[in-house]
Design goal:
By secondary structure, the chain is an alpha/beta fold. It folds into two domains: 47 residues, 2,3-Dihydroxybiphenyl 1,2-Dioxygenase, domain 1 (Roll), CATH 3.10.180; 59 residues, 2,3-Dihydroxybiphenyl 1,2-Dioxygenase, domain 1 (Roll), CATH 3.10.180.10. 16% of the residues lie in helices and 33% in strands. It contains two helices and eight strands, in the order βαββββαβββ. A four-stranded mixed sheet has the order 1-4-3-2, covered by helices on one side. Strands 5-8-7-6 form a four-stranded mixed sheet, with helices on one face. It is globular and about 55 Å long.
């Protein structure tokens, strides 16, 4: 039996988003704590993260927000330890810097508990703590 070849779907990237309970608190966190550029704010808040559209969307009433979902907003940094230090100075609790294949990572949470990742690529050397 021959399988039918389906035509490719015509998909294009739109955005990555998180549901949030308090959009104003979350906008404050991304703009002033992380320094991400706010592009627009109507029903949702849109940010430009190095050319990628990132959105905060108000959570539908009664819908729980999962802080441990399977998606992360991963932010690349040049010096992860310095970035962790700066976040800690801004009262953001971060996880320890951990070596992973190809780099270093540290996790932290935004006000509604969604997990974010800091990532530093390490090339040509073994990741060190």
């Amino acid at each position: 039996m021959q399988s039918a070849v389906l035509p490719a779907l015509k998909l294009s990237f739109d955005a990555v988003f998180y549901y949030v309970r308090d959009i104003d608190q979350s906008i404050e966190f991304y703009r002033h704590t992380l320094g991400v550029k706010l592009v627009s704010h109507d029903f949702v808040a849109r940010f430009d993260v190095d050319g990628v559209l990132f959105e905060l969307v108000p959570s539908p009433h009664g819908q729980p927000i999962s802080g441990t979902g399977n998606a992360w907003l991963c932010l690349q940094v040049n010096d992860i330890r310095e970035t962790v230090r700066q976040l800690n100075e801004r009262a953001v609790e971060t996880g320890e810097v951990k070596p992973e294949p190809g780099g270093l990572l540290s996790l932290f949470h935004h006000p509604d508990g969604n997990e974010l990742c800091l990532w530093q690529y390490v090339t040509g050397e073994r990741a060190r703590n």
